[in-house]
Every structure is written in C-alpha cells, then in structure tokens.
Amino acid sequence: STWGLLSIEDIAPMVERDLALASTLWKKTPEDIAAFVRHFEGVYGLAHPLFFGGSLQEALGMGRLVVVYLHDDDTSANTAEFCRAVLSAAPLISFLNESCILWASDVLSGSFPFSPARFPFLALCTLSDGELVILSTSQGPTTSGELASWVMTTLDDDYVFAACRASRGDD
Predict the structure, then answer these.
(1) With 90 as the cut, is the pLDDT of residue 4 above it?
(2) What are the CA-CA distances from residue 13 to residues 26, 133, 151, 170 (Å)?
(3) Rounded Cα gap, residues 119 and 72, in angstroms
(4) What span, in angstroms and rounded, lies between the C-alpha atoms of 51 and 33?
(5) Could you give the 3-state DSSP secondary structure of residue 108?
(6) What are the residues facing 129 on neighbouring strands?
(7) Of 22, 32, 53, 58, whose CA–CA distance to 134 is shortest?
(8) What whole-number distance in Å separates Cα of residue 70 and Cα of residue 73?
C-alpha cells in the first residue's frame, strides 16, 4: 500500500484540484449512494463498515475525518479481495464506524479530477476553512491492520484534529 501523511506545504497546491473533486462528489444523491450500497452488498455481502448515506458535502459537514473509498469492480483485480477480506474484517468495521465517516462511490459513476494509479483507492479528507482537503491517500492492496494504522496516524495529527474541530464550530 502506498500511503502517508501530507504536510500543509504538500496540501496547499492540491486545494484547487480538490475543489474540482468536491464539485463532482457533491452531486451524489442519497439514491446514488443507496444504489452503490445495494450493489456492494449484493456482490460482497453485508459485513462492511457503514457507508454514509448522503453527499460528500454532508459527510464533511459532520466534523469528523471522512474516508472516501472509490470502488472499481471493472478494472481492478484487487477490489474483490479488498472488499471480502479487508472491509469485512470485524475489528476494522468497528474501528471505522467509531472513528470516522466512510463515504463510498463507484469510480465509474462519476468523473474525478485524478486518476488513481491503483485500486482500491482511499482518501482521508476533512474540511479546513470550509474547503475540502485531502490529507492522505492509499492506493492498491492493503490489509485491515494497515488501513486502521493509516487512519489512526492521520487522526493523531494535530492539524487534522484542529480542522475537524473547526468544521464542527468547536472552540
């Protein structure tokens, strides 16, 4: 898995690109998300973290770290293994449900301003001053332990903590 935390200097050049991403993801309706969940559960089963049922904008407005999962059944051999072995792992399900919001979309159901090199593709996102910020990405095969560690490391970052508090309106 390729992942890591980004510094503020790394994040600044991405804000404009991230806003373009947000404009496509904002448009996902609850019906789009419900259709994705029905497809996912029909293929991979019911054991998975909770997928947020609203738009990405609504998820980000909750004031918590958001994990964006772009799903690709058609071109990635890694997707089935990720969904069956990683997203279905009970400890990971509990951890993700308690620590963040998981927002998912099929990569084929929208246009995105980046081209993930590998799948599964995940991005840790938050709001900063009302703007979408992608803090870190994970691309390619990963384990449930690696995924949990990646999220925990980001949650422990002071910048992320401050951004999440600010998006909630906390002092």
Answers:
(1) no
(2) 21, 10, 22, 27
(3) 7
(4) 8
(5) helix
(6) none
(7) 22
(8) 10
Reduced to 3 states, what is the DSSP secondary structure of residue 120?
coil
pLDDT tens, residue by residue, 119-162: 899 999 888 887 878 888 899 999 999 999 999 988 887 566 56
Rounded CA separation 61/65 (Å) = 10
At CA 169, angle to CA 68 and CA 14, rounded to 5? 40
Helix, strand, coil percentages for the chain (3-state, nearest 5): 50, 20, 35
pLDDT tens per residue, range 37-58: 999 999 999 999 999 998 888 8
Quickly tell me which residue has 């792992």 as its tokens. 89
Q: Which tokens hold the place of 15?
A: 């804000």
pTM given for the model: 0.78
pLDDT surpassing 90 at residue 27 = no
Strand, coil or helix: 169 = coil
Rounded CA-CA distance 62/85 in Å is 28
- For residue 70, count CB atoms less than 10 angstroms from its CB and return exposed for 0-12, middle for 13-18, buried for 19 or more: buried
Please name the residue ranges forming H helices in the chain: 8-11, 15-25, 30-44, 56-60, 78-81, 90-99, 144-155, 158-168
Structure tokens at 107: 């990569």
Q: What are phi and psi of 6, to 5 degrees?
A: -105, 140
